[in-house]
Write a structure and sequence with these properties.
mainly beta, four-stranded antiparallel beta sheet, 59% strand, globular
Amino acid sequence: MSEDTPTHKDWYLFHFSSVKVFGEDALIAAPMGQGVMRKYKSGNWESVDAGLPPETHVNRLYVQDEHLFACTNNGLFYFFEEQWEPSTLSIGCYQYRQIGKTSLAATQYGLWSGMRDHWHNLAYPNSIVYDFLYLPQFIVLGMEQGIAIYDRLADSWMDLKLGAAVTSLAVFNGRIIGVTDKGDFVQGNGRGGFETFKFSNMFLFSVVTKGKNVFLCCDRGLYRLTVIHNRISLISVKLGCPVTDIDADADSLYLATLFQGVQMVGQ
């Protein structure tokens, strides 16, 4: 083990930005500014950052069809034969998804589409895009100035300025929701616009969809969204530590936290 590899004892010193279940028995986690780590159920955490440039910060991890990707400040990387390989998308990347045969990435220079060896800009080359939703009729972008929506039927974009960057998006109860860089909650108002508000004494980090559930990660812990009397309400899942991201398997939730490593909660 190298001198720079964290031991089990000092693992809790790291602040985590992302966590993913990878395969049947492994967790992949991204400590902020510290590359990528892996833990098998029967082992300890180990560094798996071979191939990543020095001082790489992982914004989000993404897993699909047993393939692992990292959205980083140095571009999009994919994990192959125990090493990270760079894609030709070498600009700062915040979100990545594969939709059918199409690959989309939210970047510091707009929304991009492509494959490992060829990428092109789709929209907003002069704006930061932090997250996106690919819906049947719409593409929704969380951007530095608010939200942008592309209507496929009308073939047009609509910009909605919110006075804050929208860094995380999801769909809940038939409406688009999100989180801003100010820790506020964003919700579609059903009239083509959006409203922002704060949940009492909470700073929100992200909104995450897992199966049929939608979760809010915040400085007070993890909450699951529900609807009571036609209003969004929160049910506590894990309190007492700031949670930035989650993933799940059939039995457990795995929480990336700021001060207590990666936590596990039974479902």
